[in-house]
Structures are given as structure tokens and as C-alpha cells.
What we know:
The complex is a heterodimer of chains A (about 160) and B (about 100). Chain A has about 160 residues and is mainly alpha-helical. Helices cover about 60% and strands about 10% of the residues of chain A. Chain A has 7 helices and 3 strands. Chain A has a 3-stranded antiparallel sheet. The longest helix of chain A has 22 residues, at about 140-160. Chain B is built from 4 helices and 3 strands; from the N terminus they run αβααβαβ. Chain B has helices at about 15-25, 40-50, 55-65, 75-90, and strands at about 25-30, 70-75, 95-100. Chain B is of the alpha+beta class and about 100 residues long. Classes of the chains: A mainly alpha (about 160), B alpha+beta (about 100). The interface between A and B is medium-sized, with 31 and 20 residues.
Amino acid sequence: MKVSRSEGGGRQVELAGPESALVQQVLEGLMEAYQTAPGEIDPMVANLWYGRAGLKEAGIRGEEAIHWIEGLHEVRLGRQTALQRWKKSLPKAGQAGIWKIAEEDVETLVAALNDHRLRRAGEFDLGEGDLEVKAMEKSKGDKRVALVEIHFLAWMIELLLQE
Amino acid sequence: MQGGTTTAPEVIPGQETDLSEAFAKGWRVIVWNDPVNLMSYVVFVFMRVLGFNATKAQKHMLEVHEQGRSVVAMETREKAEFYCHRLQEFGLKSTLEATAG
């Protein structure tokens, strides 16, 4: 993967075949997860995306707390249009190519990719030790897939922020 | 401004306190450490949401990383809520705390 700044200020992400397939999988996973109501999503993921920690202590209770969580969900639902646009502009699944991201989309893309990292970490209850590269090499099955996604997206986020 | 006699507005008991509380910067916005968010991402969010420059954002990110938490803003209740919510929109663990509490 290579990321460069395009003339208009956006980003050009050069992806290899397996990388574009992975990104497609990530975008589809995010679209589904964003559509899921906070109360119906995996509780570990809900804790990271729609956490209630500290609300009660800050006096945010009842209707106010519901409104707070709904606000967080609305922001994520608002990213759906961009997710669909990015999915359409990706190289065909499994094919190498250039993925163009508009300048005004970079912030939302980075936030969405980070959300996917949080989601996958939540699903497998991953802690600091699990997120080390050595732990990924030793892991197996679905957990390994989640760790590969987490590390790949970390790389992509770093490159997008560097440019 | 019109001339003539003016009368001081009537202060309703209790309202005075409510107003001063609303405008006092008595609320801390705290960001907590977590194992998933990248250091560079946290810096980016601090710059975007809180308007920090790179040096200040880096300082607060390191505080989160090394001390487990950082007070990133001292604000009125309304503004503190706004910042706290925005930080959560970006997936950061943030809470509000009254300075007197």
C-alpha cells in the first residue's frame, strides 16, 4: 500500500489485490454495524462506540443519556453515504488499483477506519498484549483475521495522516 | 440607549446561581487511555476537535498514554458536553467531571 497526496488535496491510495479485498470487507462490515442500533450491537462494541461510562457521574441520566447515545449513533449513520461512495470507488474486489479519496472525506475516512479497529478489538475483547505484532503471528482463526485487519488499518491510518 | 429612569431587573432567588454555574468554566473534559487508538490518531483528533496545535496535542496525547488520562479542557457545562461528545464521535474515551466534585 502507498498513499500520496493528489493535486486537489485528496489522497490516492495504491492498493494491491488482497488489500483492496480487505478494504471492501471493512467498508461492508462498517455499513452493517453503523446501521445496527446501539442497543442491538455486540455489547463489547457498544461499550467502545456508545459507552455510558461517566454519564451518570456527570449528571447525564434518563432521557438525556438516551439522547447522548442517539447522537453518537446519528454521527455514525451520517457516515453511510461516504462509505457507499468509497466502496464504489474502490478497485474491483481482489484487484490492484488506485483508490481516490477527496480531501473533505479524509477526516471521516480516518474516523471510520478507526471505528472498525475498535469494533474488531471489542468483538474479541483484545487488550494491549493481544495487539502486539507477535501476538498476531501466534493467533489463529477469526481472531487472527481481526488482528490482521486492526494492524492493516493502523498502517493505513498512519499513512493517511502523514500525507 | 433610551433615556429616563431604569429599574434593575428582578433577581429571582436561585436563578442567579444557575446563571453563574452555566457560565463558569467548572467542568473538566477528560480523555482516558485505551489500548486500540493510535497515538497519531489521538493527536489528529485533539487538533481537529479541540483546535490544539501539534505540540499541545502531542503533550496531551503523551499524558493520556503515560498517566492514563489527561484533562484536555476546562469549560462551561455546555461547551464541555460538546467537546466530550465530539471526542466520543471519534472513538476516544472521554468523560466530564465537575471541578468542585
